[in-house]
């Protein structure tokens, strides 16, 4: 008998999982509440300027995972892209992540790498096992660089003091004693030439997959399916019955300009003088294209309400305890697997999302072939 398999969400998690199951001979239905595939990675051409816009915020693909890198090459032509982020602090433009140029410019010096390393080390706090973002920053770059580049940005981004946030958030960023200003340290980095939505549509393009957009899946219908893969919010599946897991959402204020407005893709604004965190100029995410006009986003983070799009899981102590309760409920849901950024309530990059979907599909197929419940 053919199994009835449901994939809730047509983002990267949903597309990769569905593809793997379809290639193994299953038929699977994919639904998404939105009018497009690709979830938060969605890209679309701006009708006024023709620029490819990263609709839910800038997305750069970066990974050390060769299998994931090979996987995405099957569905899109990637153009090489180096993420070089700038930041404006007190009327000056600096280079990120904090590197030798940033340090020399900030302190008005011309230090060589080892001098700068010793100079920064003399200013950092001796905190053996930093637990919070603030402790991590003080141990990593010291108070001056922390105050200039991280404190204000993080307060705006997360709506709380960095003293309340986990150290792991800052550990995403490198500190370099060279002039290398590549924001990421992964071996592979790029952006699909025709955008992420075309790539996800290609992943979903398989005779075993049927996609239904603008379709909200109601969790009470889970029992109608042999198995449901859920990439929606974990607490949403349980109708928020224990309370809501906290998220930050983003408001994007769009504006357009002629020519090149800021000269780079992403300019951060950590200062308290402006309420936004960064400005993205989308045409710079596709430097292989040429556009006379420009479209930009100012990005304003705020607390996520019930009708907003959840972007960043907050994961403070109170959320962690609620999360544990929801994870316990999830384990009891017999024919449901929770996947992805929202389904597992984690800050997942695209490459990890794809790797986890590949691994989950393999585990599901292995369990089906041996008759054990997944
Ligand atoms: P999503 O993309 O959120 O997809 C889930 C889908 O499920 C959504 O389309 C939603 O509509 C649908 N859905 C939910 N509930 C239901 C329901 N009940 N019925 C029907 N449909 C439903 N990663 C990188 O690697 N590099 C970056 O530069 C990067 N930048 C980012 C910038 C921002 C601002 C954010 C927020 C994230 C960024 N990421 C980046 C992470 C990236 O967006 C995620 O890794 C990826 O989108 C996760 O895919 P997903 O399928 O798990 O979730
Ligand atoms: N961050 C900061 N200043 C910056 C950029 C980042 O303080 O100029 C902090 C902020 O708390 C952010 C974290 O570092 O949430 C991780 O940064 P990243 O650029 O990885 O954030 P994302 O791309 O996920 O928004």
Automatic annotation (TrEMBL):
Cofactors (names)? FAD
Q: Which family does it belong to?
A: Belongs to the UDP-galactopyranose/dTDP-fucopyranose mutase family.
Which cellular component, as a GO term, is one annotated location? Answer: cytosol
Pfam families (UniProt xref): GLF (PF03275), NAD_binding_8 (PF13450)
* Name the UniProt record assigns to this protein: UDP-galactopyranose mutase
Q: Which residues does UniProt call coiled coil? A: none
Classification via InterPro entries: UDP-GALP_mutase (IPR004379), UDP-GalPyranose_mutase_C (IPR015899)
Species in which this protein is naturally found:
Loktanella atrilutea
Q: Which SUPFAM superfamilies match?
A: FAD-linked reductases, C-terminal domain, Nucleotide-binding domain
Where is the UDP-galactopyranose mutase C-terminal domain positioned along the sequence?
Answer: 148-347
* The UniProt record lists the keyword Isomerase: yes
**Which terms does the record give in the GO molecular function aspect?**
flavin adenine dinucleotide binding; UDP-galactopyranose mutase activity
Q: Which residues cross the membrane?
A: none
- Could you tell me the superkingdom of the organism this chain comes from? Bacteria
- Keywords (A to Z) from UniProt: FAD, Flavoprotein, Isomerase
The record, for PANTHER family, names: UDP-GALACTOPYRANOSE MUTASE
């Amino acid at each position: 008998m053919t199994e009835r398999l449901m994939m809730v969400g047509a983002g990267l998690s949903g597309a990769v999982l569905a593809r793997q199951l379809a290639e193994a001979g299953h038929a699977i239905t994919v639904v998404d509440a939105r009018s497009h595939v690709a979830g938060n990675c969605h890209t679309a051409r701006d009708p006024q300027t023709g620029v490819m816009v990263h609709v839910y915020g800038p997305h750069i693909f970066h990974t050390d995972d060769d299998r994931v890198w090979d996987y995405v090459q099957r569905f899109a032509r990637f153009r090489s892209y180096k993420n070089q982020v700038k930041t404006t602090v007190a009327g000056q433009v600096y280079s990120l992540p904090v590197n030798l140029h940033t340090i020399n410019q900030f302190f008005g010096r011309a230090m060589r790498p080892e001098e700068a390393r010793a100079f920064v080390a003399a200013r950092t706090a001796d905190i053996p096992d930093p637990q919070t973002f603030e402790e991590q920053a003080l141990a990593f770059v010291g108070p001056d660089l922390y105050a200039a580049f991280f404190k204000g940005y993080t307060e705006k981004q997360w709506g709380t003091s960095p003293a309340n946030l986990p150290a792991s958030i800052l550990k995403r960023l490198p500190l370099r004693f060279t002039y290398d200003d590549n924001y990421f340290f992964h071996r592979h980095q790029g952006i699909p030439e025709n955008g992420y939505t075309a790539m996800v549509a290609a992943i979903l393009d398989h005779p075993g997959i049927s996609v239904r957009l603008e379709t909200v899946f109601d969790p009470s219908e889970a029992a109608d399916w042999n198995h449901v893969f859920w990439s929606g919010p974990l607490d949403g599946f349980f109708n928020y019955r224990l309370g809501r897991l906290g998220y930050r959402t983003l408001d994007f204020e769009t504006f357009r300009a002629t020519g090149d407005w800021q000269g780079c893709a992403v300019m951060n604004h950590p200062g308290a003088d402006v309420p936004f965190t960064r400005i993205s100029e989308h045409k710079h995410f596709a430097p292989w294209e040429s556009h006379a006009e420009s479209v930009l986003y100012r990005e304003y983070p705020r607390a996520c309400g019930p009708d907003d799009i959840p972007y960043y899981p907050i994961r403070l102590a109170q959320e962690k305890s609620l999360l544990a309760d929801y994870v316990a409920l999830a384990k009891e849901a017999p024919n449901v697997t929770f996947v992805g950024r929202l389904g597992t309530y984690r800050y997942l990059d695209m490459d990890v999302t794809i790797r986890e979907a590949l691994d989950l599909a393999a585990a599901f197929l292995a369990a089906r072939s041996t008759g054990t419940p997944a």
